[in-house]
Amino acid sequence: MPGSGEKAAGSGGAEKRKYPIGWEDYELYEEVGQGASAIVYRALCKPLDEIVAIKVLDFERTNSDLNNIMREAQTMILIDHPNVVKAHCSFAKDQTLWVVMPYMAGGSCLHIMKSVYPTGFEEAVIATVLREVLKGLEYLHHHGHIHRDVKAGNILVDSRGGIKLADFGVSACLFDSGDRQRPETPLWELLAGWHQKLWSSYMDMISSRVLSFPFSINYKRDFLSRQYFLVVSTLSYYRADIWSFGITALELAHGNAPFSKYPPMKVLLMTLQNAPPGLDLERDKKFSRSFKQMVAMCLVKDPSKRPTAKKLLKQPFFKQARSSDFISRKLFEGLPGLGARYQALKDKDEDLLAQKKIPDGKKEELSQDEYKRGISSWNFDMDDLKSQASLVTECDDSISCKDSDALSFFNMDSLQEQAPEGLHLSRDFTMKYDIDTENDLMANDKSDVSSPEQSVCLSRNGFMHGTANGMPVNSVVRKDISMESCDLVPQEKDFETIPSETSPEAVSKAPKSAVPNVEEHDDRAKPPLIQQRGRFKVTPGHVELDKVLYNESPTGPTKVSQYAGTNTKRNEVAQLLRHGFTVHPFHGFTVHSFRKSLNISIICIIS
Ligand SMILES: Nc1ncnc2c1ncn2[C@@H]1O[C@H](COP(=O)(O)OP(=O)(O)OP(=O)(O)O)[C@@H](O)[C@H]1O
């Protein structure tokens, strides 16, 4: 490609060379890309006389801790697949980490579209690019990695038209020493010991969807089976990549992702309430039926119904995929060199900023992130949603920007659609859920967690009703529950006041009194405060577990203490809590967990 300056980049023998690990052996040239956490430069590796790309991560600019960043770099070094960007090496310089990678002279598909194809690529190009991406995803998933940021901006093209998936900034590995947010995770280590053996069979089972629904399995499994089940449940994580892959297909087809022109909070709303996006019969007449089908298969709200990468590769759509030569011929014609192209886009963004406008790219990025996050998994992270809501600067008439209102946008029906069969979420649960409170508590007082009774108390920030094993179970819990006193009253009225089919407009405009006010309720029922532990309040009285959780089934209350009856169960619950799971017992032997860091729900059976 013209102006690439690429001497030995890409896959093949070059990757086996020994790259020096001192910054003085590299000469940085122009900037060719910038992400949330890093700036990427074209550079020369002097001893090898090879053009490389160097991603410079500034520890002071990123939110991630050093361990996470180092792990990202290590993951990139271990990667060995022609469709995934690997790192040659990495090293620290002052407060930055330098990651040396093959230079991808074509840049990202997003940049190519922005420069030359603003309305998207033709179908054969899309099929070729996506087939390569899928191969990369299949490799990553097979090795226990979830990319979590599949998008046109992370699909890079080398000078020969080779396609590689880049950016492990937010990727997760189920079998690290821990997930990206929580380094101390013996539970995962436990799983890691035997994952290799079972991994391929998991993938097979998942693809046949045998184990996609927790309640269908036998409750009487031994300990290993339960852990096995936990792993299998987490495999819906991988389906988040498939959702993003579908969105990326639309992005390549149109030049931008769906809803990318809307503010993030509105995108979240639309995501939850609207049918999944897809290729339109009218607008997208030029695209084949097989393309439309392939996209529709990925963009299904229920993750368990999305195909695996391996299965997707067999779709007829990919029969039209061509060679890398085809890509270089099609995409590089008339394309300026990467440095110049990047600079032109940057100048345009700076002009917009000077006019106090958010650059298109930035707007799209925010909206896309929300779009992906909102639907590819359940999102109960209130702080996250609040911060997203605060990003909305220009509000649509129908949408209030106030945090409290923003949080009332949830349509329970939409959320319910995503919930596993048999689990019914109450609106109150989604509104009140506060994982941070639990995490803080766990951090403050770990000894409390090991007690099953107190474990039950820890999860009293929500409100949940559901059915387990065909039995209706409504578990009512209250915010600010004390460690010592967990007395509660059922709040059935709260359900009644919530319109089940409500438009966002109606919800946001509803008078405050019509929407259950959690705080008001808490004030009424709150016992006198005698001590503050973290964000939890300690009140007089003793723990009466049977009152903590109400079973509103006709057969009367179920004793919560049943669920933690044995030491094994206690330990398991405690382990889950320690690992950042929020454990919501809503039946004697069923635990429902939400994992904050990945925003993904896990159902596990503790019997
Ligand atoms: N190896 C490479 N060769 C050429 N350009 C690259 C390379 N790696 C990254 N880039 C360019 O730099 C941009 C930013 O890189 P990257 O996405 O890795 O950074 P990040 O901070 O992790 O981004 P994000 O905000 O997506 O997390 C990419 O979109 C791409 O255009």
TrEMBL record:
<keyword id="KW-0067">ATP-binding</keyword>
<feature type="binding site">
    <location>
        <position position="55"/>
    </location>
    <ligand>
        <name>ATP</name>
    </ligand>
</feature>
<protein>
    <recommendedName>
        <fullName>Protein kinase domain-containing protein</fullName>
    </recommendedName>
</protein>
<dbReference type="InterPro" id="IPR011009">
    <property type="entry name" value="Kinase-like_dom_sf"/>
</dbReference>
<dbReference type="Pfam" id="PF00069">
    <property type="entry name" value="Pkinase"/>
</dbReference>
<dbReference type="GO" id="GO:0005524">
    <property type="term" value="F:ATP binding"/>
</dbReference>
<dbReference type="GO" id="GO:0004672">
    <property type="term" value="F:protein kinase activity"/>
</dbReference>
<keyword id="KW-0547">Nucleotide-binding</keyword>
<dbReference type="GO" id="GO:0043539">
    <property type="term" value="F:protein serine/threonine kinase activator activity"/>
</dbReference>
<dbReference type="InterPro" id="IPR047173">
    <property type="entry name" value="STRAD_A/B-like"/>
</dbReference>
<feature type="domain" description="Protein kinase">
    <location>
        <begin position="26"/>
        <end position="318"/>
    </location>
</feature>
<feature type="region of interest" description="Disordered">
    <location>
        <begin position="497"/>
        <end position="522"/>
    </location>
</feature>
<dbReference type="InterPro" id="IPR017441">
    <property type="entry name" value="Protein_kinase_ATP_BS"/>
</dbReference>
<comment type="similarity">
    <text>Belongs to the protein kinase superfamily. STE Ser/Thr protein kinase family. STE20 subfamily.</text>
</comment>
<dbReference type="InterPro" id="IPR000719">
    <property type="entry name" value="Prot_kinase_dom"/>
</dbReference>
